[in-house]
Each structure stands twice: as C-alpha cells, then as structure tokens.
Amino acid sequence: MNRSSSILTLKVLVAAGALILAAGSASAQVITLKAHTFIGLNAPTVTKCMAPWAERVEKASKGRIKVDIYPSMQLGGAPPQLIDQVRDGVVDIVWTLPGYTPGRFVKSEVFELPFVATNPVATGQALYDFSKNHPEEFASVHVLAVYAHAGTVFHSFEPIRKVSDVKGMKIRTPHRTGGWLLEAMGAVPIGSSVPQVPELLSKKVVDAVMLPYEITIALKTHEMVHNHLELDDPMYPRPNTSLFLFAMNKAKYDSLPADLRKVIDDNSDRDFAKEMGAAWVEAEKPGENAAKAAGGNMSKLAPDEVKKYKELAQPVYDRWIAEVKPKGIDGAALLKEAKELIAKYTK
Q: How far apart are CA 184 and CA 166, in angstroms?
C-alpha cells in the first residue's frame, strides 16, 4: 500500500470512528422533560404521583430520561391553561384537572357525576379501561394516567345537618357537574381552581368549599372553617369526585426512541392508576387528622338525608345526558359503562 492510500485509509477510519462516537453520544443523550402543575412542591400530588413516576422513568431509562417538575405554575399561566400548554408543546408533561376546562372532556365527565365513583382505587382502574375504550376523549395529548381523588367533603363555616341547610349557600366546586348538583340542592355553585380557595374563604366569598381532605392542610382550610361533612353511606361516603389528568405532549412522546416510549408506557398502565388511587386514600388521613386537631366538627349526613341527596342526582344525570346529546354522545350508555367498570373493581 503506497503512502497516499495509507493516508486515505486512515482518514476513512478516523471519520468512521467519529461517526460511531457521535452515534453513541446521541443514543446516550439525556432527554429532559418539563412537567408542570399548579400544585405545590410538597403536596401529595407531587410527592406521591409525579416525583415517584419521574424517578421510576429515570431509573428504567438508565438515566436517558430526566423529568424536571415545576410546581405552583412556575412556568407561567393559570391552572386552566395547563392542558393547552401540554397540547401545544409549551411544556412536555402536565398534571391537571379536566374539569378546569368545562365541556372539553365530556365523555370522562361521567365519572364526576354524583354517586358514580366509589373509591379512588376502583375509580382509577375503571378510568384506565374507559380511556382505552374511548381513545378519542384525550386524543390531543398522550395519556399517562387518568384517575380520581377520594371524593369531596363539605367544609363549611356553619354546620350542615340536612340537605335543605345548603339552600342559598355559596359553595365552591371544581367542576360543572358538581355545580349542577349544588343547584339541585338550592345552593349557589362557585367554580374555582384549588389555588383560589384560601382567598374565597378568607374573604368569605363562599360559605363552604367542596374539597378532599388531602389538600386542606396546604390550603389551611381546617384553620378557616370548622365544620366537615361526609355522608353516612358505606359505598358513597362522599357525593362526587374530581378527575385528574397526567398527560404528555403527543409530539414529544412520538419523538422518543421506541425503547424509551416503552419505558413511558410500562410506567403508565392500570397498575399505576391503581397505585395513585391507593396513594389518595393514604393522603386523606393527615388532612382529616388536622381538621380534628383544630377542633373541627366532624359529622355525617344521616341516612334519611342521604336518600334525599341521592334523589337529587337523577336530574343531574338527565341534564348531563341532554347536554352531551348534541355532540353525538349517548350519555345514558356512558353512564351505564362507567358504573359497570367501577363495580368491576369495587371491593
């Protein structure tokens, strides 16, 4: 081999080596995902849901995926804008409530109707199946999980002992179907996101709020109101629940290598929804204990009053079925499906 051939061969080998190194570097490149939510850093939503999920994904990807969590709307915007932020790629992942954008996720709204959800473990698994049965519902995003909390408690300035006691009361609710139930009771629904609750209470804009115990410590609800009401019903101790959506930008998900998409998928299955439900059950205890320690009046609506309450649910069902019909949705069939799925997982 002459000198010129040797030099050419060397150049080819060096170039090939550079390509191999570049390919290896690209495959080892860390993909950082920005996860945004309105909840604070120490809230169970972050500590029990987002952070453990991020850690599992990072570990399973051998460090090729990194998830940075931005709580308390640190990346800007208001809670109702989160769904658009992830859809449009402003952020990669969000944790939000579908109910913050009324009329947008109408099919899954069936789970927020009164006396549909039983407990968060059963409801989370049912929602997983429901989301697979109706992929068009969340087609604008890549779903990581849809699940529910443990149900809302009435936290009020004045005691509520009968259904009629709420007549004329202004009560905070997170979603429109909860508002419809309040209207059926003669109350005035005030829709708001969670971060607005302390101001609503401190300024007495509302007479009561509907919240799970989980978030009450962060909001200091137990320090502002001292009456806390559930229902004396073993299957439905709380009248309704709110859905949570943990979702990823579709384009970002699709851009991942196949093995990293599998990592995401393996950590976003029915077991994850079940795990989140169990986490919500545990997260309720500190809030309930704090309410008791603050001298709260912990009461239950008596069975005869619960019966009256349940009778008010039917007009809400009828209203929702009529509301979704013009969209080509068979609300009665969805209500039947939701109840059957929850019954399947309720123990």
A: 10
Q: How far apart are CA 212 and CA 190, in angstroms?
A: 16
Residues 111, 215 share a domain: no
Residue ranges with strand state E in 149-248: 153-156, 170-173, 188-191, 208-211, 227-231, 243-248
> Is residue 14 in a domain?
no
Choose one of 228, 263, 281: the last residue of a domain: 281
Residue 339's CB is within 10 A of a number of other CB atoms, namely 19
Assess whether 68 and 217 both reside in one domain. Answer: no
Mean pLDDT, consecutive 10-residue stretches, the chain (347 aa), reads: 43 43 57 96 89 97 98 96 98 95 93 95 96 96 94 96 97 93 96 94 97 94 97 92 96 98 97 92 94 97 96 95 96 98 93
Angle at 94 between CA 288 and CA 345, to 5 degrees: 55
Alpha carbon of residue 226 to chain centroid? 27
Token readout for 260 is 């990293």
Position 207: which residue type? Answer: D
Quote the domain boundaries for residue 217: 153-241+286-345
Say if 13 falls within a structural domain: no
Please give the angle made by the CA atoms of 222, 194 and 182, to the nearest 5 degrees: 85
- pLDDT, one tens digit per residue, over 222-256 is 999 999 999 999 999 998 899 999 999 999 999 99
Helices within the chain (DSSP H only): 3-27, 44, 51-60, 82-88, 120-133, 176-184, 197-202, 216-219, 221-224, 250-255, 258-266, 270-293, 303-311, 313-324, 331-345
Distance between CA atoms of 285 and 321, rounded to whole angstroms?
35
pLDDT value for 43? 87
The Cα 107–Cα 130 span in angstroms is 9
